[in-house]
Amino acid sequence: MSAPAERAVPGSYRPALRAGVLVGGPLLDGPATVHLVKDTGTGHSFKVGPREAFLLARMDGTRALDDLGAAYASAHGKRLGEAQWRQLLALLGTRGLLDGAPRPAAAPAKSAEPRTLWRGTLRLVADADTTTTRLHRVLRPLLHPAALVPLLLLVLALEAALVARAGEALDATRALLGNPVLLVAAATLLWLSTALHELAHGVVARHYGGTVAEIGLRWRLPMVIMYCTVDNYPYLPTRWARIATAVAGAVMNLLFLLPFGALWLLAPPDEATRDACAALVLLGTVQALAMLVPLPPLDGYQIAGQLTRTIGLFTASRTYLRLALRRDPAARAYPAPARRAYLAYPAAVLLVLAGTGLALWAAARHLLTGT
After folding, report:
1. Residue 269 pLDDT > 70, yes or no?
2. What percent of the chain clears pLDDT 70, i.e. is strictly above it?
3. Which residues fall in a coiled-coil region (predicted)?
4. pLDDT value at 167 more than 90
5. Is 198 within 8 Å of 217 (Cβ atoms)?
6. Are 342 and 320 a contacting pair, CB within 8 Å?
């Protein structure tokens, strides 16, 4: 690989990216548009501009440099010169992204935090991706629209019933908080729901061709939660696949509530389980919706990033707002899509927080006054 970069690059040379090199779609990064590139073999990742990504996406070993140059000139109105080709191929070779180039050392692994009684992590399975693949094989029929759409309609019906009978659910929650036995049972079920939430991320990512790096437990006493790390999430094939993976956890939380909602709505009025189920549906719904708040590191933040096609949305939006409020000329360098994204995001966060505050006020008012 080094030869083409050191001497005249023949137009018949057919560059190919190494197997396992992933090139993501366009993303806003402040005022710039970038593409993420990752070598899954070494773990190294990079940002490149749209023009470099245009060429990388076509380096599959079937196109000669002359063909790549013609396609580039047609798309961008400019042909790359000999020096530019040498520079690009040398850079790709140095980073080990081209087939046949020496592969650099793997990226240093993130050092695991010391495990203590009070905080730490513990892997639960040796091969998380194989485990998730097996789960996906079993659950795949439920991801088909013929099964998923009716389930989502049942979720919507349950949530509509919860809104209509919110006062009853709030009273049941107050009673639950005064019953230690039922409270422990509800807390255990909600913890199980969080575990299923994490596994749902992994199963849906696997459904779209992703991989799972780890499944384990993370504790910060007194909290102990399960985690499932989806590897290469930004490189899932479509934006819809990434949104579906991010929202899968909250959907799983709501699906988990369906049998308890049925007991609440259909059980005889004099059964004690009825009020416990009403409280569980309310608390479980709050748990699911809290994960969709568009603030880092919650799932809602990942969804917001995909909807706006951005990376580092929180920081980039804050930076742009500061520039705009100061009437800094640098704010004008942001393209229109970036300006819209960085203005829409804080507006959406404020609306969500205002709605949350209003809901909390209404709940507190009911509990205090009964109205």
Report:
1. no
2. 96
3. none
4. yes
5. no
6. yes
* 291-330 exposure pattern, b = at least 16 Cβ within 10 A, e = fewer: bbebeeebbbbbbbbbbbbbbebbebbebbeebbeeeeee
> Span 38-46, mean pLDDT?
90
Distances (CA, A) of 101 to 17, 98, 104, 109, 330: 10, 6, 9, 23, 40
Tokens of 167: 């006062």
Domains of the chain, residue spans: 2-94, 119-292, 307-371
Q: Is residue 38 within 8 Å of residue 91, measured between CB atoms?
A: no
Residue 259: Cβ within 10 Å count: 10
Mean pLDDT is lowest, of 217-221, 301-305, 313-317, 343-347, for 217-221
Q: Are the C-beta atoms of residues 197 and 230 closer than 8 Å to each other?
A: no
pTM comes to 0.91
Per residue in 4-26, pLDDT (tens digit) is: 444 556 778 899 999 989 999 99
